Amino acid sequence: MKLASYHNNTRDGQLMMVSRDLGRICDASDIAPTLQQALDDWDNVEPKLQQRYDALNDGTVLSQIFEPERCHSPLPRAYQWADGSAYVNHVELVRRARGAEMPESFWTDPLMYQGGSDDFIAPRADIVLPSEEHGIDFEAEVAVVTGDVPMGVTEEKAAGNIRLLMLVNDVSLRGLIPQELAKGFGFFQSKPASSFSPVAVTPDELGDCWQDNKLHLPLLTTYNGKLFGRPNAGKDMTFNFAQLIAHAAKTRHLKAGAIIGSGTVSNKQGTDFGSAIADGGAGYSCIAEVRMIETIRDGRPSTEFMKFGDTVRIEMLDASGRSIFGAIEQKVRRFEAEAP
Amino acid sequence: MKLASYHNNTRDGQLMMVSRDLGRICDASDIAPTLQQALDDWDNVEPKLQQRYDALNDGTVLSQIFEPERCHSPLPRAYQWADGSAYVNHVELVRRARGAEMPESFWTDPLMYQGGSDDFIAPRADIVLPSEEHGIDFEAEVAVVTGDVPMGVTEEKAAGNIRLLMLVNDVSLRGLIPQELAKGFGFFQSKPASSFSPVAVTPDELGDCWQDNKLHLPLLTTYNGKLFGRPNAGKDMTFNFAQLIAHAAKTRHLKAGAIIGSGTVSNKQGTDFGSAIADGGAGYSCIAEVRMIETIRDGRPSTEFMKFGDTVRIEMLDASGRSIFGAIEQKVRRFEAEAP
């Protein structure tokens, strides 16, 4: 199934169902008014949604043309957003760029940060931020949405708790990260609101590409109209989504609608320095990684972070070249605070 | 006003209104079904709630005896839970106990961590955790619930966004903190679910005790039936709640129902080592602080963390000795994972 939330002047939007080819959309709010409410009562709601989805794909239910610009993030706000860092290659590069060793334990103990989830950005809305000086970056990722997950869940059981997948732009303020992490309490101001793909999909939609709790497809990032990255999200993912969920649930329950992110998708590409798209490589899912490679190679970074007016597009295509989740497509814009 | 959420077999509970003296309770779910929904539409809902509250206190509306054991945390789940560390004395002690200097900037730049908010513990429910080895501790705190707060809000405007106050038990797993913070991404497994007082109150209920965006009353913590702390929450609070909100909103909007915590309440008490209740002092709001003082004084801690079966009670009384928020009253219990 493919689900979306249309703007309807409420905080949580209206639950909609999108056809497999993303061509058509129909209302599903009579089954559950919002996606959160569907997730809250998934066992009851899921069969009804499935029936509607079949009818939508068969063309036997009233539908409209799908307009992604009318979408909220599938969950416009959520009760839990925890982001892993499963592509350890990315983490190793960060460390190497600043001349630090990465602890061996990072290969066995996932990094994960607690994100803010009260105000996600819509997939086609501008990223509105106060200052370019903060070092604005995108991070292209994959995320899952869980059902209720009990504390201490095993990896095997966690796999069965994955309800939906989405793409993420985990917007980061690189200039604020060093001071903030030095304080010892993790990210806060350096991780402003994230955005998610227009459409959330159930794992069965992904066919063979969903294996070992990883999504084996290239994640396409286009920066200012130019392809910037196409690393395969199934490759070099040290911790799969079931492992990330089990890590998150070690000392707590996770409740329906919890979002668990993969971290920036990154492929090792057989070289110490990765390889840009222009060099025939898989490219990157964030600017920071290019800058790290430049630093390791040249002694200093040369690619700048995002400026106001810059655009980023994040998408994933199936084997036949069709968009699975719809595209995140955003421009960075200056925030104008209200007059005091 | 005093608001609570009664268990009603839903995830968010039923919005209830509690009389000023905590003696009586009446339904308010006809005005807004849940506290989150009330906060989502506060400007419209607040006058109706106020009218009901007046009637409840006058005894002109149908009411029952208030039973705090029927309460969820006022927000059983929330979209945002960010916890400051406003009592810098506490932070300085942590550092000193491990022989580290505290950066000067900690007096001007608040520490804040992003907490998980999808599954708060009810104020009279057991704290259920997998292992005593994790170093189970309580942290008695005060928190505010905000309305919609725009990015870049000034301290002055932030003050006007405070809708409610609550008490918190920010349960912490001390044994997991050092390794987790060393990874650089902040708390995750070391900060399991928190619990909140049975009742959330509007600032006007606090009269003169609410000044300068601080709550000037002793916060009482009773550990295994013995008074453990009574530090004044208005004293030694380096950052007030308006400042904490402004810090949280620097690069993001905060949405209605965001919870911002004070961090462990701690008084300096005119000595380098604080002073226990038994010595006539104000005592402490967490076990870790006692252990730090023991470490500084004796070279090693002697007070143990919580064991299964231990109890903690957190409460605040008004000038006439009446409970303002009701008491958080919890026992620590071992979590039994489902059979795999």
UniProtKB/TrEMBL annotation, chains A, B:
Domain Fumarylacetoacetase N-terminal: from-to ranges: 1-77
Superkingdom per UniProt: Bacteria
Domain Fumarylacetoacetase-like C-terminal intervals: 81-332
SUPFAM superfamilies per UniProt: FAH
UniProt GO molecular function: hydrolase activity
InterPro entries in UniProt: FAA_hydro_N, Fumarylacetoacetase-like_C, Fumarylacetoacetase_C_sf
Record key words, sorted: Hydrolase
UniProt-recorded name of the protein: FAA hydrolase family protein
